[in-house]
User: Fold this.
Amino acid sequence: MSEQIRRFPSLSHWGAYTAVTQGGRLIDCEPFAHDSAPSSILQSMPAMVHSPLRVNRPAIRKGWLRDRHLCDGSERGRDDYVEVSWDNALAAIHSELQRVRTEHGSEAIFGGSYGWSSAGRLHHARTQTHRFLNAGGGFTNQAGNYSWGTAQFLLPHVIGTYTPVTGRVTDWNSVTNHTRLLIAFGGMPLRNTQITSGGAGDHPVPGQLERAVAAGMDFVVISPTRGDVPPGVRARWIPIRPNTDAALMLAMIQALIADGIHDEEFLQIHCVGFPALREYLEGKTDGTPKTPEWAEAICDVPADTIRALARQARNTRTLLTCAWSLQRAHRGEQPYWASIALAAALGHIGLPGGGFAFGHASMNGAGNPRMEIAGPAMESGRNPTGSVIPVARVTDMLLHPGQHYEFNGRVGTYPDIKMVYWAGGNPFHHQQDLNRLSRAWSRPQTIVAHEIWWTPMARRSDIVLPATTTLERNDIGGSTRDRHVFAMHQALAPIGSSRNDFDIYRELAALGGYEHGFTEGRGEMEWVRHIYESMAKEWRGSGYIAPDFDAFWSRGFVEIPEPEKPFVLFEEFRRDPAGNPLRTPSGRIELYSEKIAGFGYADCPPHPSWLAPDEWLGSPKAARWPLHLLTPQPAGKLHSQMDGGKTSADLKVNGREALRIAPSDAQARRIGQHDLVKVYNDRGACLATAVIDADLMPGVVALPTGAWFDAADENLEIHGNPNVLTIDVGTSRLTQGSSAQSALVEVMRWEEAAPLVQALEVPAIVKLDRAA
Assistant:
């Protein structure tokens, strides 16, 4: 008789689903019934859960097992592993934590976990790691994130909050009903709308766009690639040189001023600093008026197009959106600040369907209609050390301990890291200049990782502990930008000898004598219940009564009602700026910031400006490296998660990531369709498969992120990971964000034999020595 088929509710960052099991195996992931546009990434999960790439048992790198903290860190990524018992692995980690804290202080431990490992809020690897390290004495943390870290530290100076970049923008109902012109700087690629941090019960953006088109909305997409135009949308595409959007926006403001049609009243009542910005735009401060002709030479967008777009935007209800990618570039503060200034000059801020927004197609949750009530959450505790670095400066920290750096008005000092503790995330995906990171990665004495699969991070760690997937534990998940909270029922027994992060840390905390401080006396289901009931208590304060926990757990989800009235960003501020001031020093939108002026940063002036990136098509470096590399988010995976899965594999070409290149650029280099090519600059090189794309403007190539890093040395990465090519410098001293989208390269056809990709294979492992 066949094994019984069973179904369990669950959740991922790419959507809610029902896990279908049979005989102790996951055989299918059925999308949530109320999801209008489920993600195809769900198809990758059954094979990945049971993948031969799973870390099955604790493993220690041979060199570290032999020499402990005196080992040669340069062997990370090349050394074999020895499987050991859980007791031996935990004892080794506990011993190292105690040694490092005693000899060097808790700030010498870097808790580098990143936040995308699980949509569940209890078994959220970053939260659990930080909670454990905080309970034990603290660690060095990271401030901000790679996704929108530049905006996170700029926007509070300008508009008093960074919530618009997290998705709290004028919602789609208001946009569909009132916006007549939507200008999307950086485009609106729907592949990004698969994802919401914390998970999603619905993917409404395709449907919202259909309604917007039916309502007669005019779309303009400003991007180097027509691929950023959403399918089914009759958008006008304006090609633009990468990294030059700020110049285009500034010229549009100048055109409004020259025509005398800027909204002087809004600028006077709701903003401060416009006179200083106007002097800059008119060339009174530097002798260069920021006219459309000036911008045309920078952006390669005709001056007449710029003027006409400015006039159209002023004469109809207009929403400006900026993709997150615009601020992930050198001087990435400037397009976001300039877009706010342009929206202010148009005068539509605070009106239904008007103003500015960030990320409407950078993640699923941006602009979703949702009551502003809490989502499920777990506290990570207080860090006793207070030690923190900007998130993207990890390589600088490892290479230059003791060096000073500037960040958002303060001066910090990089700590001397002796131990890295990582659970969740893959720095060999999201960090720039991976060859530089590889050199830095040899410096810590000990690196510990909890991992599900033998990822590039696991392969470069000294102690690797096998972690469960979300389907091998109970949890609760949900996003503050989605109208659902989900029960995540355990569907499978832990595979191999894997354990969840909470249980691993509980055992380590017990060895250190602070188990209760970590667990607060709760086990897994007690925590799940506590998280739900704490959230439900907050909901009651907002007037919404949630079902009790047992009813929620049985049904598998709870749905939050839509708000009665569409949310419009800064609506109350527009109506009464004195009664509803912003949290800026002036209480108004700051087009000139006295606070930023006081920092004295030449790389981030006190008003939006055109600052040329170090690498762009107008720089001297373009003579040697004539192609601008874009590194978009992948369509078949979340960052590097599920890279070994079906959806990701189907989008690769000949087993490697696809490099999109314009026909004229391919012809000039004798590159044919699906040729193997080398993409290179003075930081590194990688192999990829050429896909000739007529929708890409000449001089620009695009290589998605997320291929598992596969490099035996610094000479060549063979899987198509673009971060061997990207520049590792902060956007400015103000925000120190990622500058990944500012990279120049060259491309040539690969004439040698194609090397085999090994990143999706298990490293050499010596089986468990029970006498160890």
Notes: The radius of gyration is 26 Å. The chain is about 30% helix and 15% strand.
